[in-house]
Amino acid sequence: MDFNIYKIGTFIALLLVYLIIRKLFKKFADFTESIGKSTDNENEIKRLNTKIITLEQKINNKP
Known about the structure:
single chain; 63 residues; mainly alpha; transmembrane; transmembrane helix; membrane
């Protein structure tokens, strides 16, 4: 009987540790993803702005 209580307690403790570690990794992944997105957005905006400028120049130069 004591052995079963020990097993159940150990299982619950391991489950809690797993959930805590999983939550911490999720927060870390979200944080690093938000850092990566901010630089990607800036680069994409610059790229799109250059495309817009070149297209406007092509439109203005057409006879």
